[in-house]
Amino acid sequence: MNAHDRIEQALQAALALGEGTAGPPKLAAALRHAVFPGGARIRPQLCLAVAQACGDSDPGLTNGAAVAIELLHCASLVHDDLPCFDDAITRRGVPTVHAAFGERIAVLTGDALIVLAFQYLAHSARHAPHDLPGLLSIVAQRVGAPTGIVAGQAWECEPFVGLAAYHRAKTGSLFSACTEAGALAAGANPERWQAFGLFLGEAYQVADDIRDVALAAELLGKPAGRDIALCRPSCATEMGMHGAIAHFDGLLARAVGAIPPCRGASALRALVRAESERLVPEATVRQFALAA
Amino acid sequence: MNAHDRIEQALQAALALGEGTAGPPKLAAALRHAVFPGGARIRPQLCLAVAQACGDSDPGLTNGAAVAIELLHCASLVHDDLPCFDDAITRRGVPTVHAAFGERIAVLTGDALIVLAFQYLAHSARHAPHDLPGLLSIVAQRVGAPTGIVAGQAWECEPFVGLAAYHRAKTGSLFSACTEAGALAAGANPERWQAFGLFLGEAYQVADDIRDVALAAELLGKPAGRDIALCRPSCATEMGMHGAIAHFDGLLARAVGAIPPCRGASALRALVRAESERLVPEATVRQFALAA
């Protein structure tokens, strides 16, 4: 089974844990709406890729970690889209959860997805409970306070925030959860895989800043994207587009350099380079960005 | 150490897991605001009481379960108080989290508390990982979809809801988490303790309905409390006050009857009867309620 099918199948199994005829129908529909269809599933793909590079000795446990992280990511998107944050009406071309089901169901959907993530992780570790405290601790630390993605979002409520700390919490932390948990689920030392995840996550956030400005330049004819409109810290505004692209390339190189020796290291390096071209494609975004 | 001090000390240890100098200050302050000072801490008290009735063979694990449940309860209060739900400005005489820190921090505080609950549970089970999948599964099922407290809140967004299913999800489920997890942490069979928790939780919710009406009668001179104002299903409106009080007494009797044989059964029965008088005191609430 390829990674895409493996992830979608495990996500279906996780959602089934949170479903039943005795539950409120709107919440059940909103949970599915928040998870399917997904985006690139980049985080569970990364978790699987690291586990496979380390041998993937317990695929069920790897699936549990990958799916828990994706469900937590989906929860963060549902809450980030709320009126009090981004007030987004659509995501990936369909209505956001609060636009489709109302604000109350959107708050509860995020809550239920967080609970389901840990529930499915525990469910996947039934046969290997000795790994569960470590896996759960990694995932929880990278999501909660003081330095996980929830903290990253909370930095937006502070009068001052350093760009590196903000990017690390908002994006880097969950990427490092992927690499650390993927390694641990395959019996490898998670600490050695943390730097790879952090560099990759920071690169991903910088790529997002670059695309935000490049897309605005393309669509609006002026360099003002959503981050700027929302006064969020943005690498592209702090460093300029030339600086941001150089920073992205540097982070990618450091990520590749941080991959620990393992049997699947060369395949993993190739995957990261392919992902780099997907994130900031030479032919379109860079040219738009530099022309803007 | 008495149960009160034991719970407060374990809650402090849990909060410390989610704190650090590297985090955003408002989120850190809001997390403490949501947890301290607490109310009656009835859920962790119940979890401890059941564990003690069963021998309390692993106090650290009992603390982990009790604190996880209390943090999840605190998270639900923070989100229930949000403008899109109850729009409550004060709770226990102090500003609610969103009134004190803003709506965005309140959403994130609830999220961070849910994560912290599972993180502390895993932390408390480091030395006993074989019990963690079971404990985590009990707690997650009683909180999430389709039948936990999140589902209970989501029933308020449906056009029709049966009162028993609503009460069971909204309150009974977390009470049964307390009795089941308390039993499991002490090495007893959790299934045998479920009915006790469910009856107790339903009784607690009915008591809340009774007090809501009785308090409104006392303060406003008319029988219209918050549940009625918010069009929420209420036992007191469906059954009348006489019916609601009889229902409460019946549920308490069934709860006491559902306590499984164990070495601390008689002490536990006495505790439940004392709690009954605290919830619906003969001298005040019943008289007000029946006069209303």
Quick structural gist:
Chain A has 292 residues and is an all-alpha fold. Helix content of chain A is 71%, strand content 1%.
Features:
homodimer, 292 residues, mainly alpha, Farnesyl Diphosphate Synthase, 1% strand
Describe the structure.
The structure is a homodimer of 292-residue chains. The first copy, chain A, is mainly alpha-helical. The first copy, chain A, has 2 domains: 188 residues, Orthogonal Bundle (Farnesyl Diphosphate Synthase); 104 residues. Chain A is built from 14 helices and 2 strands. In chain A, strand 1 and strand 2 form a beta hairpin. The longest helix of chain A has 27 residues. The first copy, chain A, is globular, with a radius of gyration of 19 Å. In chain A, 57% of the residues are buried. About 2% of the residues of chain A have low confidence. The interface between A and B is large, with 61 and 61 residues.
Compile the SSE list and pairings:
The structure is a homodimer of 292-residue chains.
Chain A: H1 3-17, H2 25-35, H3 42-53, H4 59-80, E1 90-91, E2 94-95, H5 97-101, H6 103-124, H7 132-143, H8 149-155, H9 163-185, H10 194-220, H11 226-229, H12 235-257, H13 265-279, H14 282-291
Antiparallel strand pairs in A: 1-2
Helix pairs in contact in A: 1-4, 2-6, 3-4, 3-9, 4-6, 4-9, 7-9, 8-9, 9-10, 10-12, 10-14, 12-13
